[in-house]
Amino acid sequence: xxxxxxxxxxxxxxxxxxxxxxxxxxxxxxxxxxxxxxxxxxxxxxxxxxxxxxxxxxxxxxxxxxxxxxxxxxxxxxxxxxxxxxxxxxxxxxxxxxxxxxxxxxxxxxxxxxxxxxxxxxxxxxxxxxxxxxxxxxxxxxxxxxxxxxxxxxxxxxxxxxxxxxxxxxxxxxxxxxxxxxxxxxxxxxxxxxxxxxxxxxxxxxxxxxxxxxxxxxxxxxxxxxxxxxxxxxxxxxxxxxxxxxxxxxxxxxxxxxxxxxxxxxxxxxxxxxxxxxxxxxxxxxxxxxxxxxxxxxxxxxxxxxxxxxxxxxxxxxxxxxxxxxxxxxxxxxxxxxxxxxxxxxxxxxxxxxxxxxxxxxxxxxxxxxxxxxxxxxxxxxxxxxxxxxxxxxxxxxxxxxxxxxxxxxxxxxxxxxxxxxxxxxxxxxxxxxxxxxxxxxxxxxxxxxxxxxxxxxxxxxxxxxxxxxxxxxxxxxxxxxxxxxxxxx
Length: 490
Known about the structure:
Elements lengths: L2 H18 L1 H40 L5 E4 L32 E8 L6 E2 L1 H7 L4 E17 L18 E8 L13 E5 L11 E5 H6 L7 E4 L2 E10 L8 E4 H10 L13 E2 L1 E6 L5 H11 L4 E4 H7 L3 H38 L1 H9 L4 H37 L3 E6 L9 E5 L2 E5 L5 E6 L7 H27 L3 H5 L4
Parallel strand pairs: 5-10, 7-9
Antiparallel strand pairs: 1-12, 1-13, 2-4, 3-11, 4-5, 4-12, 6-9, 7-10, 8-9, 14-17, 15-16
Helix pairs in contact: 2-8, 2-10, 2-11, 8-11, 10-11
């Protein structure tokens, strides 16, 4: 028989055998499909959780930020010569009492858990080996309220609603490095973003949620520290972004300096930042950069995105742990079971084909041709299993997207900052708590993206399982003796 005729006979025989044993072939393909579908589903769910966690980290750190440097606020009652006040001590040294006329108050303090770093530290960080760029940031909380007049007090001295502060978060942005820090995660909705010429201007970019709540649009004005800022743009941000309003860093520093609760001990308006955002030369350099900065700024907290990820709590963290641990072992277990089922079915099929295979060997088929025939049948079964498995995986991912609840992540208000504990004593003993606003919880919608890598992995696993099963069956078939096999022919 010619080579061409041999190939034609091979594929004709392969097709007829699969048709003749379609039930067994489909059963083996279904077993592989279940395992492959589960792998695709679990991989998609894990990728969705990882993507949700990455969205939280990027929105806090900024897309281009690898390392963040902050300085923790001192514990309550501990003096800090470089502090402009922190949550829990915002009114330190300042009292507000009702008088003859209402008294408006608009004060800026550092965000909860943060203290001040000298701006000169930004230049020091930028000179560290393998640091590509460094930018300073100033994360502030703006509290606005009105001290009522005596005539405005209600029965029993109850203050009116205007006496209770409304707060907003303000982020001073280094306009020279807009790709570093939380502002890098913002997407422009309307208006324009910052330009280099805005460094000393009273302009602001507002978060879309904050703008909607306060009926702001491009051209509106917001008041920060008794100064009016014109809104030049509206941005949408990932859910974990902390700032309601962004203003140029120089203006934020000047406002913080002039705040009534400021105590900078002779600092100039450009001498303070609360955050230093750092971009490493490459991802491989991040650990070395982090270690170098920790040695350089020993009084500060130096953290990478990996450190921040370990601090994320809530259902997002629980889901990530579950997907990483349970999903991995569940997928491995089901795949092993699918491979075992396919192998047993192939071995059983070979056992029922003793006479047929013995006849082929008696007609002159060499062992390698018998092996090639069985491997070919297994390969086709694997391809069918892969197609069905990918389809099941897409269906499973769709179910995950539809049924998954919204996840939540609880993170510190400022990246890398650990808010100070407040300790209070009462009759039941000591109670530890964090100041209000130290943490915030964000909701994250879980997705389950099916990537090309996951599909390729699924196809590879299906084909590997089918070929493994075929290898066992062909090994057994190659050991058949024609005479013994022919003796079973009736």
